[in-house]
Amino acid sequence: MTIRPLAFANTLALTTAGLALLLTFLRVLTPTAFVFIFNAQFFGADVASLLPTEINVLKMAGEFLAFVAGAWGFGYVGAIIYNRLTRDSQ
Predict the structure, then answer these.
(1) Is residue 39, in this structure, part of any structural domain at all?
(2) Residue 56 class from Cβ within 10 Å (0-12 exposed, 13-18 middle, 19+ buried)?
(3) Which has the closest alpha carbon to 9: 17, 59, 29, 1?
(4) Which pLDDT tens digit goes with each residue over 16-62?
(5) How many domains does the structure of the chain reveal?
(6) Rounded CA gap, 83 and 2, in Å?
């Protein structure tokens, strides 16, 4: 079964954008909940303390675009590689 690279890349980028927006809204609206959820991803290590204390909207927008573009590229290339590897094994 092959994966359609464009559809897979779009889905991965959309999922990344949704998660990034959720974490951004949590950070702005409820910082305590953000710290709890963010640190839970790293098994309770205090990783949230490494983030900057003030929020720079321009920098966060650039990081958001980089996350989404990176996820899209990873999904597209990953689907192509997956399709080639599964075609060779058949």
Answers:
(1) no
(2) exposed
(3) 17
(4) 999 999 988 998 899 899 899 889 988 889 988 888 888 888 998 99
(5) 1
(6) 6
Dist. CA 17–CA 65, nearest whole Å: 9
SS3 52: coil
83 in a domain, yes or no?
yes
Q: How far apart are CA 15 and CA 9, in angstroms?
A: 10
Domain extent, residue 68, equals: 5-25+52-89
Strand, coil or helix: 89: helix
pTM, two decimal places: 0.81
Q: Dig out the tokens for 74 from the structure.
A: 């990873």
Residue owning tokens 């899209």 = 72
Domain assignment present for residue 72? The answer is yes
55 CB contacts (<8 Å, ≥6 apart)? Answer: 27, 28
Tokens of 7: 């559809």
Residue 67 inside a domain? The answer is yes
